[in-house]
Protein 1
Amino acid sequence: MNDLTYAYAQPSTLTHAPEGAALQLAAYAENAPASETACFFQGRLRDSWLAARGLTTLAKVVASRFVPQNIALRDPIVTAGAGLLRFEAFSSCNGVYARLDLGPAALDGEFLSSGTTNVDFNEPMVNALSRVARAEPVRLTVGQTEVTLERAAGTVTERKVTLPERWLKGLTAVQGYLALMDEKTTLTRAQATQLVQSIPAGTARGDFFLVLRGARPSLAPVGSPGAVRVGGVHRLRLLDGLLPLCESLRVFATPDGQASAFVVALGGGQEFVLALSAAANRGFSGEGNQLDTLLEDLPAEWLAGANNLFRGNETFNPTLFAMAHDLAPGTVDRLCASLSAMGLLGFDLAENHYFYRRLPFKTDRILKLNPRLKNARALLDSADDVQLVGVGAQGRTEARVRGTDVWHTVLVGGPEPPRCTCQWFTSHQGQRGPCKHMLAAQLRFG
Amino acid sequence: MNTLVVEQFEQLIRQSTPADFIPFLLKLEKQDLPAAREKLKALKQELDTIVQLSANSWGTRATGDQHANLFLAGFAVYSRREALGGALSGAGSLGMSPNDRIAALKQHFITLVATLRPDWLHDWLLRQHDRASGWSIDYNLLRTLEATGLIPFSPLLTARSLPGLLADWGWNLSTTGSIPADAAAVIADAMGGDQLLLTRDLPLLFEYEGTIHHTWARIQPPMPLNQKGTGQGATYLRPWQAWDQLHPLQTVGWQALLLRLVANGHLDRADILTRCLLALRRDFRRPLLSWFRELFLALKPTFTERLARQAELTELLAHPLPLVVNFALDQLKDMHAEPGFNLAPLLLSAASLLTRPDLKTGLRSLVTGLARLPQRALAPAPTVAGLLTTALAHPDAAVQKLAAQGLAGLLSAPRPLLTSAEATAARAALAQQADYLSSAGRTILAPWLDAPAAAAPAACYTPLTAFVPDIAPATAIAPVTDWHELLFLTGQVLQHQDPAARERWLDGLLRLHGQLPADYAEQLRPYLVQVAARLKRSHGIKASDLLTESVSLHDHDGLFLALLLGWADGFATPRVARVDVGGSRAAPLLVVEQQRYLLVETRLQQAVTLSLLSTPTHQPHWVAPSALLARLLSHQAAGVAPAAADLALALARSAHAHPAEAAQARHLLPQLADAGLRTLLAWFFGPADQLLPALPPANERPPAQLATPVAKALPELWAVAARTKMPAASFPTLAASLGYDYAGVTQPLSCVGEAIPTPAQPAQGPAPRFAELLWRGGTALAAPSPLLLYASPVGQSQGITWENSWLVLYEFPYLAALLPNYPAPLYAHVLQLAAWTDNLESSERDLLLLGLHSLLGPGPVLETAATAVLASGLIHHTPAGRNLAQEVLLQTIAHGRLQPAGLGNILGHQLASGYAPASRLADTLRPLQAFDGLTDDALSLTLDALLPMLPATPPRNLRPLLDTYADLLARAQRPAPAALRPNLLAWQQAASLKPVAQPLLAQAA
């Protein structure tokens, strides 16, 4: 599975001039039309200092890694549309997702086109961002004019970056988790600062739980009713530069505690989202929380139609969308899962709606980026590899599915969650999505 | 493809020097490259792989020249993809200090790449920097590559490589000619002549995270191999010491060098000052930020220079690290009143600074400065009042006190600084912060605080008198009902350390015996594969061999695997008895557990499906008395004699204190045929205060063993029942019945940590780093009977090794599940292993964490050993230990399990012995106060007992603990106890303690 390699015509820069600074983010969009001008936004940052803090925190997330591995500096994805600029990124280990939203109140300029692109985050630019002073006027340009002309002329690229496919996989899992999350609590700035100071020193082992004791937030090593599970809590330190500046901090978590998110309201139309996976050693790319929903193929024309609709609308609420188009909630879930499996959808917790990313509409990515689903389909290629044993009460189906040198007993259907005797299920007990054996049994008998 | 060329290629790599090899590489034809590439990969695999060279030696087979040839050949034969993909390694030599061999290699490298001009060289160097943290290319080599147009100028590579230039200078000055007296001056002069370095490259050191803070030039001639030591006896100097005396080492760091360059005018002082401040804005690592701070301070900026950089300094106030913020506040503190100082950004930043609990020293100066501004009409009083009110919530008592003083000054100024409306708003804001105020702050601001309408009576903590387990349908453990549940439970038990799941699995095996599908063994095979994978590392075993070969199994995990393997082959081969449980020393109670597993195995072999007596019926591990009676009656009906080990554990797990359950058990009791057992259970489930009946004395009775029938093991069962029901009681008649006594049988377990006296130290010797405690088990011999579940652990802490801790670590959750009524012996074991001195290692830490974890939730009042485990956690050296202990403390208070006096005594004893610093306990307790009246009261009671235990000479850094105590007493609305008076009298002599000791003393009087 190859990563996508993309190139910038020139590096991103922040230049200072007497009339103010100019932040030009070089972009490379995978599906940029050759004939169009690849410039998404031009204008002024209303609170450049705060935006610079958000962008440097995003750069910190990108440069961070919480498991031993090589540094894999990647550049954020920026989506321009619906009056917002959304900068998204993952840590190198893929267990932390961060997004900086610059809303209409934060921007004073024009959106030349909607689109999604990678922006170059090089060290000099991060350095320059850290030097932006309070009240310093800064102009922001995302993308650059005539970039395609330069590409067509074969301009020497300044820097090549590999977009890891696991980012796309991570985006799928993250939006799946974010869409499930409930708001647990809201902290004031003082509480948020106390929270970051209560993070245990060093690398935290095991889970921690956010609890409010009186008005004081604490991170406790044991759970209690109402506590929010925060896996790999030391990763929250990524926010230590932003929390003293925030207006409030909203805390979200999935009902099963497998992911948590912290929405930092910075004021002035700026918001920073940090989502954490269940543990420091669990990247979002390996979660597989959307596999169940992806099982059933939707007609290609449905997907294409939904893609065109969302592409035009740029944001939508799934419940309202289902009601407006007289669709079953399950069908909308499958549509969303399929589109997000191509990296096309993100989820905005604050507004409780999906937003659209203009990435290539490649349905082959659904299988390519979900090897468990692909392997399950491969099991179905042979008639003997998935065998029905019987159907029990309430439709509980027992199957035998071929594994490596053994046959696995698989139970699917009915009110109980599916089960399997394979190593994956035994280790994770269903917390990281279904195994390929369950998927194969569900595809054949489900 | 020319075969001869490839052969020659190989031969040259193996046998030639790099100098001889280069001409060949330069003449390689394009059509020969694919074959040469493959040959190079094969040779690299052969020569560069680490192998065992001799019995005790590992390394690569390649010689120095072969390494160099392999590396150089890569530039000639690899494509971009291969080079960037990792095939071309060995860049280390391009970054090392120059010795002759390395210098020659670099020259060959330049010759080669200058001719071949690989277009991927720059990308390859960047990739090498990313992959090898800490490695950087030689700066001079980088400049050469850049000058010859082989790579473009790269700020990143330059910033990474430049620090190493200083190390190269050290090498050059040490090895060429005479050593200069002032090496720093020589280096500075040389660098001063390099304009590109000064104007383009040096500024990059302030923009990229690098190694500038720990790179030095070390100038000293290399010591000859035949250097001898000098002197004799006490004056003997080792060779290197003698060499140091002859040729003193000069060390030149970047800071000294930059100061020289600034002093010589090669660098602009103003520019460097500004760059330091800009570098401090970055998220660099702490040591590097400290270095930039030190450089700024070393330049000794004047007041005017600092004032000119007020904007840069104010920007630093948003930095997440206290070291940067404190530095900025320190630089700004004398500027507030200056006419040229712009206060607005400072006031803006102060709003977010004053809530940061990690800032203390800097905030004190900031608050002091802020409080003076309105009097000088430099800042609007309402703004300052708002900031000072914000600071009142700060956890640091000094910050809070200064803010309170400042606010009081504003509100009581002779010439009003606030309008009436502003003053009202300030008082309203103050009222919102009232809950956070310490006693000192409250006293200062008393005139502006509303008096409490009616002082609410402070909550009063009292420990639980009797604990009744929750035996209800909601806590009932559902037995395994069908084959599929049992199958998937097997996987759960296999991979997860869960005592409750394992108990359900054991019970399920017995219950469902005979109801399994015909192919059940085949369905278990995936789990056998997982077992084989787990055992593979030590045994190299295959899944297919598991059932046919003798597999070595150990400890609790081994007991489970033995049953699983037996189940898979229909229990044709008994396996449980062969499991090595390591003796009672390694893990107490494991032999009793083995007996239970043996019982299950035997029953399954004999197709007897009776449940074990000791299988828990209610969460977490309780056996309901009525269920125990029902099981005994089932055994009786089936004609199966109960096993003594199983019955002893059932008694230990019994919820005997549950009145309804005990009554139901008593109701069933007459149906039990065994009169001896009936008598025992009648007492056990009888009234809580019923004395132990007179037991028949034994004559020459041997202690009961695991397989002893219940009738002969009754005295041991009485011992278990008595201690389960009355943990703190004495049972003097038991010894006569047993025919022997043992620590923890007739008398309750004694668990006291005695401080080991520090041996007299030689005058010149170092002071001992850590105090040690001796937890005595009270006995040096193993218990006479394994059925004595509450027997004291053998030995003492100093005789125990880390292997013991490691063994118990895995077993502890299972063992703690066996003794829910009275786990004291296990806690005594934990104390012996993991709490005998501070700063023990990770296995001891993890064991203590397990001990602490088992104290969470409802349960009986903590006895001495459990309290000592909690105390050890509260002063543990790791944050993980203290965090968990905080939760345990809160939960034990909430559930009424804490005995504050007991905890205070143990902590007082430990702090007095110097086991841990008093400030550590203060840091642990401080976050727990002021959110719950009950907790405040329990904590104050704990400190009531603790503080009198401390010596009259106050332990170091006692002030934070006394501050916490004073706050707690204020909240609990009561004075310090009289027992503390002598210590308070002594402590008030110390200047640091006087401000807090005196008011406490006054209250105590």
Note: The two ends of chain B are 103 Å apart (CA to CA).
Protein 2
Amino acid sequence: MLINTRLNQVNKLVSVLLTVFFLLTPVFAADKNTAGDKFFEEKVRPLLAEHCFSCHGPDKQKGGLKLDSKAAMIKGGDIGTAIVPGDPAASLMIKAVGYEGDLKMPPKGKLSAKQIADLSSWVKMGAPWPNTVAAEVKDAKSGSIVSGRDHWAFQPLRNPAPPEVKNKSWVRNPIDQFVLQKLEAKGLKPARPADKRTLVRRAYFDLLGMPPEPREVEAFLKDDSSDAFAKLVDKLLASSHYGERWGRHWLDVARYADSNGMDENLAYASAWRYRDWVIQAFNSDMPFDQFVRMQIAGDLLQPNNHDGLIATGFLMVGPKMLAEDDPVKMHMDIVDEQLDTISQAFMGLTMGCARCHDHKFDPIPTKEYYSLAGIMKSTRTMETYSVVAKWQERPLAGPVEVAQEKEHEELVKKAKQEIKKTEDKAFAEVVAKAKMEADSYLKAAQEKNKYREGLGKTRMKAGKQVEGALLIEAESFARGNVLKDVESYGKGIGVLVNAGQLPNFVEYDLDIPKDDNYSFEIRYAAAESRPVRISLDGKAKGEFAASVTGGWNPESQKWEAGFLAPFKKGKLIVRIDREGPFPHIDKFALLPLPKGQSLDAQVVSTAGLVPGFIDQWIAYIGKGGKIPEGEAFKQLVQSKDGPFARPRNIDLVLPPNVIATLKPLRDNLAKLEKDKPKLPTAMAVSEDKPQDIKIHIRGNHLTLGADAPRGFPSLITIAKVPKIEEKSSGRVQFADWITQPDNPLTPRVAVNRLWTWHFGDGLVRTPDNFGRLGDQPTHQDLLDWLAQSFLQQGWSVKAMHKLIMNSATYQMSTEPNAQAELIDSENRLFWHRQRQRLDAESFRDSLFIISDSLDRTAGGSLLGMENRKYVTSTGSRGFDGYNTKKRSVYLPVIRSSGYEPFQAFDFPDPSVTMGRRAVTNIPAQSLLLMNGKLVQEQTRKMAEYLMKQSGDESKKISMAYEILFSRNALPSEVQRAIEFLNLYQSAAQSEKVSKDESLIMAWQGLCRSLLSTNEFVFVE
Amino acid sequence: MHSFNKSLTTRREMLTQSANGFGMLALSAMLAEEAKADVKINAPIQDPLAPKAPQFPAKAKRVIFLFMHGGPSQVDTFDYKPLLERDDGKPLPFNKPRVVSGQTGNLLKSPWSFKQHGQSGAWASELFPEIASHSDDICFIKSMYGSNSRHGGALLELHTGSDTFVRPSMGSWVTYGLGTENRNLPGFITVCPTLSHGAENNFSSAFLPAIYQGTPVGNAGTPSDKAKIPFITGETPTQLQRMEIDFFNRMNRERLQVTGPDNALEGRIDSFELAFRMQAAAPQLQDLSSETPATQKLYGLDDPATANYGRQCLMARRFAEAGVRFIQISHSYKWDQHGNLRKDHAKNAREVDRPIAGLLYDLKQRGLLEDTLVWWGGEFGRTPTAQGGDGRDHNPHGFTMWLAGGGIKPGISYGATDDYGYYSVENKVHFHDLHATILHQLGLDHEKLTYKHAGRNFRLTDVHGRVVREILA
């Protein structure tokens, strides 16, 4: 097999180790672009789009001339043909852009010499213009032009009758006729049926992703009825664990994750609602067409149902560049990601290719791509596009809750207005009075400033002692709601960091040794301004630590001088608080004033003046502000941002009686805000302004081409193409179009996905690509027959499971067959059952089952993070919230910081649709089994569990075999295990391990060995 | 619960014993050689990591990428701009870019003085005296530019060629194209990689098979002497581990009698043997105690300021010797001086200057520089205009990277920015062009190293990239 002829060859990597992979050589492919096409796309098309199309394009044809196709150029305008391919000198257009005659184009200004030369070279080349109507495409093999719509997958579903076969007794249902007919045609026989032990294990792992418990195996073995397996399948389909297994399959397709990944890895804290909805949809056997429609337009189809919103999480959970400085590009990239996922997930189409140029292999012209893009552009995904952008969260609330929230917002608004009114009035009075005394303020400030010189500088320096100084470590607070960080931002020093609860505050209970005047200094690091308020015994001293120190890390820690104040001997509560998160505070200090210096308050007369305004004047002077004279001074006094400006903390200038009046009002507001009803939210889309967009030439939003009205691709023929209303985005119609019964792609792609997950490989082995570069179906008739059955069964997924699993094809054994191996080494004809390696989740869940410690609680979030917080906050610590006993499907999926044991077992990159996981055997997988903590812990538990059981060694060994392999141990195996235990134990003891411990270790070693075997890791 | 382990024979001790008197280094080298020989003689061609012949004769066998995360300033390091010095404090005489990550003020001259070095007369500031002394071995590309003004986008573009979607990283493409020389080690190793700004996406294989993803050794939060490969060590003593492997691999072999031949099953048997060897080989390469005091000093291991990055550099040389194809060592997110430029750029430069110079010297004296391509740089440069009084903003529009060894012309400067060092203007080199050039040196044609995924052939350079032939020796 030559992988380079195949799409998604990662899918081809079947269980490999380093020495036994399938052929996988790098593909050195020839570029299919001709040089001329490339030249046109890079040099000429952008130039035409920028300078010509606005007057000679699809909208306007000045002078009767259109320049948007080669044919139109040759046809020319009122004064004749524009170009003569091959002959620039004879081409009117070249003359016009050269400004050679009367006709000078473009009229606004001559093109650059380089651009003119490019146009001329292009005409000289014969004016190559790549096909824009991609309904005709080059045949991948012969290179001849064929109609792209002829491709099998785009043809209507057929209704094939199950074929006649010779070995009728093998057939259990029509699936087998299709499979057997192909085998018989090649002279092959299907493998023998699997035995019952194998079947029960297969069914459990397949439908639930877990091994059967020994008693469940026994029960099935005892059931001799002819429909025993059918009953088992029914029973498993009724288990709530079924949705956890098959919902996870779909989550691979939906590129589900609980964090954004990409550049800014923020928590998708409500994504889990979508995940749980998917699991529930599978458990309730939601008809698949409805499942599709809900994910595209649930918000519109079921506007009064939370599930409607939640289901559109499918459109939301993709990775996004949230720190893209160009918002238009960000928007189009998000639209593209959504379209690409929708088209691959539901229809097996690789739409993304048509973003920059007509699809080279499938009949999807760029214009049709932008017709669909218009639908997504008319859909609201983001709340903001400014860095760091915010995706949309929609409240999950009924009309009552929404009304309540609105009412509450009104109350808050009113309370704020009332406070502001009082403040404004008081401030107007205070400032008016103060302005009359501007000269006194200036004088007081100048006086005070003089005394502050020298004191305003920090005296705390690393390594220097100031006599009598009180040095307080910030993390020694008595009360507070922030974290103490000693590992990253506070490495080696210990700092305060925001823990998520706002406002941040800390309080310290100090004991001041004697009455004295102190200066207050604070040491912190901040990369952005985060001023904190400091209060002594409840009295605010103002805002400090406002300047930026250059970073968040310890090396950016700096001392800053705060304020001067007299302190009384005895107890003092120092409070630091801030509405938002703190800077990284390391410590603060109280320094007695040096001899000879005293508090300004004692030497400057400030009677009758407002201290807050004096401080503002000092600040003004301190910043080097000039003191103008005459009229200019008056202006400074009146200026809204001068020294009499309204301070951010208005209490600094308000008289105490006003503050007292304000207190109840403010308390009321604080209470209101605290009582704000918290509505749960879901990541969900909504309708945005409906709009058609233009073709983006070469995918670039800066070079726009012709209009692309919203609509649907023409590659498949649908009797009733839904019409998009002008006032809607068209998403409902998009969902309709995908799920129309005569859309042949959707049911074909869906049943092929189911087949892939049941068998390891699909009837089309590229489940995410049914286009011309995808694989041909191995059993096209069977695929269509299954698709028709799917439609007839009302898109019931569970009905399809029953159909497939009750076939003889599904129930074959894995037995080898040398002849079949020669004819069909890849098992494309399904002559035997393909052995399946446990996937990451089944492996982990099995570990918890064998140690009897699985928590089977369904649903809910384990992320443990606030929405939109960085999941890897410090850049130096990965996400570590994987410590749970719940099923693997509930583990957070963190992009860019994946769970290592899962990565070792081929958990897919959750950024792209993955209909079939790779199965590789990277060294990390073996290392995980040998050294991984997860394996270490669970095998220890299993060892302890076994040792607790009654009976002798052989009985316990048998039990281990039953738990792990669903079978009894052979006597020889028991014997060998006993020998292993003995040898292992004495080897451990020779290393000075106690006898008891060595026994546990031996059992653990045995358990780990057994679960490292191929028999455990592969399902037959 | 497992404190008894301390008394047990360590894996390393046992290997030393079993190696009958060979020193650790000898053992390590032996393992490497053995692995190389193994591959040549026995490996079937299907092996995805088997060394593959390049498309055309290669000048370089491996790459060491010295990544300066955060964005070192070109105008303070290697791109000398007399006019910037002259016009300090004046406004930039031309327009700033349409899209910027933050606002900047007027021109800010470099606080450091520049002078010329070596025969080539390369300009370098006093920030990098040691690296500058190797100027005659270096090719400075002063006209680099990218497309994204944010760390995340720029890191992804630098590492994967795309600042828009998740794509395979450069190291993954290289191992996909060339395989690995040493089967006991991963082909692509990244030491102390960042966990922000794209994190794993910067060394992931994306849609390439997982076997080509970079193996992280620690992360940006780990000191380099504590950095480890995931799962490389555990709690089970080696001899007991050996008993386990023997026990279950016997079961595995017996089962093959029942199942018949199956590549996947057989593969897993070998996988455990390989993992067992790897867990001895990899930590040995990270154990620098066998290096002579002179070598340790050369890399700055004797100085607390340089020891951390020095260890990474020395590890890189050892990985290179052992046959690792693509080695990235990251000087973690330190170079982002929006403020505190004077202090922090000086501190950062001091941390890496001597180690990098030591690496260049050591590679050269061992004859490794010839076929090792050493690559230095950050995700972007910085603006010549000021942020605050002592800082610069991100600048993807023009900055400097340098290459040494691996068939690159030594002792030259290529390309130029404008008079103030803002925009790349002469012989511009985009990330795509640099990627194309590096692949070329490894014997890979960037237009032909493709992988089919989601309906089309993907390349590291997408539809762009030009091999910068002017800098090839």
Note: Chain B has twelve helices and 17 strands.
